[in-house]
Specification:
The chain has 169 residues and is mainly α. The chain has 7 helices and no strands. The N and C termini lie far apart (42 Å). The protein binds heme C.
Length: 169
């Protein structure tokens, strides 16, 4: 998909634009909405800040629409990316995911962050703040790994946690 030519993508977008743009520009997506949404992923402040900087434009309901995102036909491509990104992973709706789903998404996140596939390079080009330094990439990866471990543990503990039988770590 990423490699579709601009023309083809634009043609596709022409079809999708009406739908996409109208469904994306919901009140939830307003700029400068600082308060965390109730469904937001729970992470320590430094990690949350990295996710906001590097991921939230496409993977949350709080997209800060870039100026070039208001100019057609690029706006259609941006809208399509955001719609697609939110469908794959939406940090604003994290708490509505089933534990199994969270686990899967965390595993995807670990892969894309460690391989530096996300944020997409063309986005990094336009958004300096979305670039993660080596230290930031390591911190984010470590947090994702600990979240996976935690999710695994709570799954293994199942309903029997109250028994206190788990030899943690
Ligand atoms: C410019 C928009 C944009 C930004 C910023 C962005 N993503 Fe994405 N992301 C997408 C799109 C579009 C898809 C779905 C299509 C694809 O896989 O390329 C996606 C897919 C994903 C997936 C699913 C991968 C898979 O295997 O299908 C994960 C996980 C992900 N992104 C994590 C992140 C994380 C973590 C960040 C921040 C560090 C981030 N993304 C930043 C647009 C973005």
């Amino acid at each position: 998909m990423k490699n579709t030519t601009f023309a083809a993508a634009t043609a596709l977008s022409l079809l999708a634009a009406g739908l996409a743009v109208s469904s994306i520009k919901t009140p939830g997506g307003v700029l400068g909405d600082a308060a965390a949404a109730p469904g937001d992923i729970d992470a320590p402040p430094q990690i949350a800040a990295l996710l906001h900087r590097a991921c939230y434009d496409c993977h949350s309901n709080r997209t800060r629409w870039p100026w070039y995102g208001r100019v057609a036909p690029v706006s259609w491509l941006v809208a399509r990316d955001v719609a697609h990104g939110r469908r794959e992973l939406n940090f604003s709706e994290w708490r509505t995911y089933y534990p199994q789903t969270r686990m899967r998404k965390l595993q995807w996140m670990e892969r894309v962050v460690s391989e530096r596939v996300m944020p997409p390079w063309d986005y990094r080009l336009m958004h300096r703040q979305a670039r993660l330094s080596d230290a930031e990439q390591v911190a984010l990866t470590q947090w994702i790994q600990s979240a996976i471990a935690e999710a695994q543990q709570s799954r293994a503990g199942g309903g029997a946690v109250a028994a206190g039988s788990s030899r943690s770590r």
